[in-house]
Each structure stands twice: as C-alpha cells, then as structure tokens.
Specification:
The protein has 453 residues and is α+β, with helices and mostly antiparallel strands. It is 46% helix and 17% strand. It folds into two domains: 260 residues, no CATH class; 147 residues, Protein Transport Mog1p, Chain A, CATH 3.40.1000. A hairpin with a 2-residue loop joins strand 10 and strand 11.
Amino acid sequence: MRWPFAAFLALSLACRGGAEDHSKPKPAEKPVAPPPAPPAAVEPPVAKTTAPTSNDDLLKDADRIADKVAALRGLSVKEPIKRGVMNKDQITERLLQRVKDEYAPDEIAKEEVALKRLGLIPMDAKYLEMVIELLKQQIAGFYDPWEKELYIMEGAGALGGEEVMAHEIDHALQDQHFGLKKWLAEVKKNEDATLARQALVEGDGTALMLEYALAQKGGGAPPWGEPEFLQEQASTIRMGLVLMADVPLFLRESLVFPYVNGLKFVGTARASKSWGQVDGFYKKPPLSTEHIIHPDKYDAYEKPIEIRAADMKGSARGYDNVLGEMGLWLLLRQHGIPEDQAKEGVSGWGGDRIAVFTPPGKKSDAPSATAVIYTVWDQPADADEFFAAAIGALAGLSGAGTVSTKNDTHVEFKGQSGVASIEKKKDAVLLVVGPAVDAAMRAQIWKSWKVKR
C-alpha cells in the first residue's frame, strides 16, 4: 500500500533514544569513587537547558532549527515553513482525507482482497482501519506536501521533540527543492518503486536527524562507513516493533522499511558522498526495493524486468501491481520461511507482477479470488533458490495444505483455503493461489503474460 504520508513521517519508534557520539574514542572505564558530600548550604548546580521542552517552544523555535537543518543538509530554506500541532483525532481526519486524495474508491478494496488471499492479513481484518490505527499510534510528526505545512503530534516534545522537528523540516526542504508530491506520483502505479522512493526520502530524513542530534551534542559526523554504526541505529528503530507485536508482519515491515533500509541506503552513500551528491538520487531515483536493499545494484542502476498481466477468462482483474524483492521476502516470511533463507531466496530478483482475479459479482470476496505472481530472476540459479524457498510457503498459502503434486519443476498443495501451486521454467517462477488451479490455467498464464526484457 502507498501509506498516506509514508514518505513524510517521523515515527515515534524512529525517534526514541538518540545517536551517541561515535566520533571520539570512548575512554576506558575506571572505578568510580563515591562523590564527596556537598558543602552545607550549597545548592546543587542546575543544568542549563537550551532545547525546547514543549510543543509551543518547538514551534516558536522552528526557524532556528530550520537554519541548522539547512546548514547541515545543504538545502536552503526557499520560503517560510508553516507548522502546527495536531492531536490524534486531527491526525486521523487528515490521514483519511489523504487516502481519499491518493486512492480511487475501489483501490483499497482491491488491495485488501490481494492481501487476504495471500494470507498477509487476516480474512476478517478491516484493512484501512488497521492502517490508520497503526499510523496514529506511531506518528510523532509529519509533513503535508499538499498543504506545504509540517505538524508535530501533541506530546512529541517528550519524544526527542527537536529531532522530530529537524526530521520534518528536512522533508519540507526536500519538497521545496525536489517537489516530493509530484516526484512520488511519477511511480504511483508501481508500489515497489514507490516504496523505494519513500525509503530514499525517509532514509534522508533519518540520517539528517542523526547528524543533527550529534551536532547538538557537540559531536562530529556519524561514522557512516562503519557497518556496526548503521546496524546499531537500525536496531534502535526496530526496538519500537515490540510495541506493534499484534500488527500483521506485512504492515509492520512495510511501515518500518523506509526508515531502517532507507537509513542504511543513505548512510552507506554518506560514507563516501556529500549531501550534494545525495541530492542527485532525486534526479536518478532508486527503481525498486532491490536498489535500496543492495546499494551496489543502485550504483549499477539495474532496471527491473517489466511483466504485463493478461486477463483471465470468466474473471475480473482487480489488484495489479509489483511486489518487488521486499514484497516477496515478506510473503515468504509470513508463511514460515526463516529470515536468512527468505533473504537468499529473493536476492536475485529481476522483476515480478501480481494480479488478482475474482469471479463475477464477487470482487470483494477474498476466498474466491485467485492470485497470480509471475516472477523473473537474474539467473536460472536465482529462480531455483526462490522456487526452493517458496515451496515451504505453500502449506500456509493453501490453508494448512498438504502436497498433492511434486516434481522438479512443479509443486502443488491443497488445503482448507484452496490450492497453492508453484512452477519453474528457466529463469521464471509462477506462483498461483486460488480455490482451484489446474494445468490449463497455468499454461494460459505462461502463454498470455508478457515479459519485456
């Protein structure tokens, strides 16, 4: 899903804690003697506080923060940045309005059917309500590119408020220089490409926030060239996931991906590139989540293979999009494939297409839907790895199913919710999940879907 404001949020889970000053070596620890008792009648010293402690202070101090962000990020303030405070009810109202702005009336319903058919959310879930509630619980601030205004959540001052403000000001400056709304709309029909661009925007904002936090502490630049530092910061963000334990894996990981993987992508670039060179990424944006996960593939600028779905006789086509490396990884993880095996299974991604078909009069009925995922891989060996990994997901996809067909190129499970079938041909793998899947259906898909190499 193209999360409302997903490229403009400061999540509370991404703002907890703070970056330590890694620019200086840590002194060896020494035994600490008990402090002497203070002289009589001497008041203990009071630490001076320069950082804002309330939302009102933050809003008043926004211009000062903006000047610091502009200097760090190398993006000038072209026009005054409007700002405000919202409570959760106001956030909900604004998110729902943006859903109406970004989605066609039946678009969310089509996506909901796809996610339910693939077992990524429960069959009885109310998809939009889940998304809005999750965002409400996690947002610490956001920038609205429609209104050209940034907002912080009531109480954000207690959650590293100045860093939240710096994060959102960075988004405002990105928008002033790169036109984020239009830039994201360029790939509106490709959710994998959209997620990749969101990761660049959020990785930029999160990296800037870390640099800002260190500068406030008098430290130097973050050690972007140290993988341990990036992993430490990513782990800090992921700590917030424990607060979302009851949220489906797909929603949790889709929300966190732009922050964790985006930070790794931008942080890796910052190890050898200036912010001015990072600006060039907006002119030559990442094309897929593969580019974000594997920065070397962005450097090579590998272009995803395009696949076009074809209609299925007697059915209506609903959701029609791209899962990408991230989406396929989530599908495997949802259905019990270990993290490392899933990572290896999707690492040679070349391109994919998912289309969901429903019988006449049942466009919102997920149990009667058929989901088709056509994937192409860099090499036949990569297709073999995905095929082997995905076999382990078939039992879950079919509803606690058992093997009904198995050979070197085709495996099929039948279960409570239907059939899950996977078939391999050279560097392509076809996964079909539905009430009934037969050889004629698979043959028609292989023949009619078009691969543009």
